[in-house]
Amino acid sequence: MSRSGSSERPAEHAHGTVAAAALRRPKVLPAAATVGQARAALADDHVHAMPVVEAGVLLAVVERADLEGVPDATPAALVGGLAGRTVAPTADLASTWAGMAAEGRRRLAVVDADGVLLGLLCLKRHGRGFCSAADVAAREADRRRPDPAAPVKAQGDQP
After folding, report:
1. Separation between Cα atoms, residue 92 and residue 16, nearest integer Å
2. Cβ contact 77:52 at 8 Å
3. What is the distance between the alpha carbons of residues 113 and 116, in angstroms, rounded to a whole number?
4. How far apart are CA 2 and CA 8, in angstroms?
5. What predicted TM-score, i.e. pTM, was given to this entire model?
6. Which stretches of the chain drop beneath a pLDDT of 50?
7. Which is nearest to 50 in space by CA: 114, 131, 106?
8. What pLDDT does 33 receive?
9. Cα pseudo-dihedral 97, 98, 99, 101, rounded to 10
10. DSSP letter assigned to residue 21
11. Considering Cα of 10, then 12, then 15, then 20, what sign does the dihedral take?
12. Which distant-in-sequence residues (6+ apart) come within 8 Å of 78 by Cβ?
């Protein structure tokens, strides 16, 4: 059983390859990004890993634990890693899901044989499926909506 409490395969992606389920345009950090920038990106609780890329090539995948005790000015690529954080686009999706669940890993960078970042495989919180581009877009739209509990200023109020 996975950390998410699920021991079944994700219904919507039980067959196929990793490439079919990966987000094709993940958020990334440039090669010159700092730990401070990575920390800011990872402040969003939906962001579990930040790929660091240069000219499309994956240099490192940074996770929150990599940043503990590291000064903000440190290059993010130096604290991230690749081992256990990448997968080939042709990998079997069901087997990859099982490995992610067993390791408690929610994100894997999808890279080709030359190390070019092709996407990000994102296991949903419940562990029974993978995030889609539509899921990500919906979360972004929710974040942009004004908070309905926030006070509304009347016309003429001074800031």
Report:
1. 6
2. yes
3. 7
4. 9
5. 0.77
6. 1-13
7. 106
8. 97
9. 80
10. H
11. negative
12. 60
